[in-house]
């Protein structure tokens, strides 16, 4: 039986790579973004026929949006087994310059969005007795950040902790929760955020001396989403070229 996955922030970047890889692995995928037009464009790129993709508008700062997305997915396919909480707001504002409004916006998108997703989709999966919650952390949440703001780093560190909470809460009900923490990826969003000279400095500080491959991160998500991954729970998977070792 096909598994059904929903990916937040899937219209571009890492989220798109994840949705694309899940689809290629045989999953049916709800492709969500806060802009429906972008979600539709991404879905068409993944599956021109549209039979195994479902574009949806989902603002992760709103719990009712998760409830609506779940209802739409169930209406289309009758079930949902995998959630990838990928949507994020990235800012590189110096810590002393972060305004209360910007702090709340970043935490609201990254951390609160992950909480809502795990609550809504996790409850549905628990009722069904099976599910996979996969949350996107970040190297920034482990080492304090190399190119991103303190608010982004704080949100990602909290996501790693929140993943452990849901792993304990839902594990006995057949639902696993895991996090993936990428380091700097070779993505347009990274190159847009970090000036070229600073990015080169970052690359030189990575033991393997190159940026990460989003496709590998997506493949890791696919493995964690598989039925065979049932004994992996509460873990954080590092993909950072050796920038953070433990």
Keywords, separated by commas or semicolons:
246 residues; alpha/beta; Rossmann fold; seven-stranded parallel sheet; 7 strands; 48% helix
Describe the structure.
With 246 residues, the chain is an alpha/beta fold. It has a single domain (4-239), classed as Rossmann fold (3-Layer(aba) Sandwich). Helices cover 48% and strands 15% of the residues. The chain has helices at residues 13-24, 36-46, 63-77, 100-128, 140-143, 150-170, 188-193, 196-205, 214-224, and strands at 4-7, 28-33, 53-57, 82-85, 131-136, 175-182, 236-239. It has a seven-stranded parallel β-sheet with strand order 3-2-1-4-5-6-7, sandwiched between helices. Helix 1 (13-24) links the parallel strand 1 and strand 2.
List the helices and strands and how they pair.
Elements lengths: L3 E4 L5 H12 L3 E6 L2 H11 L6 E5 L5 H15 L4 E4 L14 H29 L2 E6 L3 H4 L6 H21 L4 E8 L5 H6 L2 H10 L8 H11 L11 E4 L7
Parallel strand pairs: 1-2, 1-4, 2-3, 4-5, 5-6, 6-7
